[in-house]
Amino acid sequence: MSKANEELREWIPIIIVVFIFISVFNFGGIKMKDFLTLLSGLLAPIIGIIAIYIAYQQKEINQLKVKNDELANRLKLKLDLYEKRFSVYIALTEILRAAHHPDDNRTKLYEFHRFVSESYFLFDDDVIQYLLEVADRYNQLRSVQALLDQQSLERGEERSKLALKQDDLFKWFDLHQLEAARQVFSKYLLLKELGRVEP
Fold first, then answer.
1. CB contact at 8 A, 194 and 79
2. In a domain, 83, yes or no
3. Which domain holds residue 142?
4. 167 pLDDT tier (thresholds 50, 70, 90)
5. Residue 39, domain member (yes or no)
6. Which residues of 44-196 form beta strands (DSSP E)?
C-alpha cells in the first residue's frame, strides 16, 4: 500500500501541471498556437532542471560508491594484516610444541625465525620481545640437548648442570607458554576488532 502511495505522490505534481494547462487552454481563451509557443519556451528550462537533477543524483551515487570502496579496501587491509599476524601466532605455537620433542626441528626453527623478522612490521614491542625470548630459549634448549647427547660428556658436575638447565628450559616451555602466547597475541587477533572499520 505504501509503495502505491509513493508512486501516486510522484505523479501528483505532473497531474496538477497538466490540469493547469488544460484549464488555461480551455477556459483562458488561449489559442493552440500560443499554447505550443508557451510550451516550447518552457521545454528548455524543464530539460535543464531535469538534467541538473540527474547530475546531482549521479554525484550522490558516485560519492556513496567511493565511500563503499574505501571501506572495503580498509576491511581487506585489516583482514590481510590479521592473516599475517595469525601466521606468526601459528608458527609460535608450533615452536612451543616442538620444544618438547627432541627430534630435529630445524625447518620449524628457520620458519619461526622468518616470522620473527616479519613481526617487526606487524606488532608492537610486546609481541616482538616475547618472540625473541621464545627463540632465545628454544636455541638454548637445543644447544643444551646437543651437549647432553655428546658421547664424550661424562657423568659428573658439568653434565648435572646441563641436565638441570635442560629441565628448567622444559619447564619454561610447558603448557603454560601456550596460554601466555594467547594472552600476548589476544589484542592483535580478536575478531571483533577486525570488523571495526572507521568511515
1. yes
2. yes
3. 72-194
4. confident
5. no
6. none
Dihedrals phi, psi of 183, to nearest 5 degrees:
-65, -40
* pLDDT, tens digit, 9 for 90 and up, residues 103-133: 666 777 888 889 999 999 999 999 999 999 9
Cell, residue 198:
572507521
pTM given for the model: 0.65
**Greater confidence, 13 or 193?**
13
With 0-12 / 13-18 / 19 or more C-beta atoms within 10 angstroms meaning exposed / middle / buried, residue 136 is exposed
The answer to whether 104 and 162 have CB atoms below 8 angstroms apart is no
At a CB cut-off of 8 Å and minimum separation 6, what does 94 contact?
108, 112
Task: Give the span between the Cα atoms of 104 and 32, in whole angstroms.
Answer: 101
CATH of the domain at 125: 1.20.120
The per-residue DSSP string of 179-191 comes to: HHHHHHHHHHH-H
Residue 46 forms part of a structural domain: no
d(CA 137, CA 94): 14
The total domain count for the chain is: 1
Q: Quote the cell numbers at residue 150.
A: 655428546
Res 170: pLDDT: 86
How does the average pLDDT of the chain come out, rounded?
80
35 part of a folded domain: no
Whether the per-residue pLDDT at 162 is higher than 60: the answer is yes
